Amino acid sequence: MTTRFQLFADDRGRVSYCLTDDSGEVLLQGLPCRGKIAAQTEVMHTRNVLSNDHLVPHRDDDGRHFVVLKDDDGNVLGRSRHVASPNELGAIVREICTAGPGAAVIDQTRL
After folding, report:
1. Model confidence over 7-39: pLDDT tens digits?
2. Per DSSP, what are the bridge partners of residue 83?
3. Residue numbers of the domain that contains 102
4. How far apart are CA 86 and CA 17, in angstroms?
5. DSSP percent split of the chain into helix, strand, coil, nearest 5
6. How many domains does the chain have?
7. How many CB atoms lie within 10 A of CB 21?
8. Which of 6, 54, 72, 109 could disulfide-pair with 49, CB 3.0 to 4.6 Å?
9. CATH of the domain at 80
10. pTM, whole model, 2 decimals?
11. How does strand 15-20 pair with strand 55-59?
12. What is the DSSP secondary structure assignment for residue 61, as one 8-state letter?
């Protein structure tokens, strides 16, 4: 498998994307949208802003690290999974920025 955006629907009909790596691990999780077209638009928007300038690092109270992807206006588009160290987070950020812009979109919804 390769790095890819996957579209998923929840039990309320909202669709969101995950950017997953070669092994299926989630690199970036998008926010729920009202439908498939809106989620596909979010993927396109996400691809356009994938850079270190738009990935804001955070640290939880328990010491785990993650990044939040924001657009030019500061709106949240998604966030990474939590990891234990800044080094792990750096590796995720590099993969998101390198593979994300060209990653294929796989529709896993049944809408």
Report:
1. 999 989 899 999 999 899 999 999 999 999 999
2. 65
3. 4-107
4. 24
5. 30, 35, 40
6. 1
7. 18
8. 54
9. 2.30.29.80
10. 0.89
11. unpaired
12. T
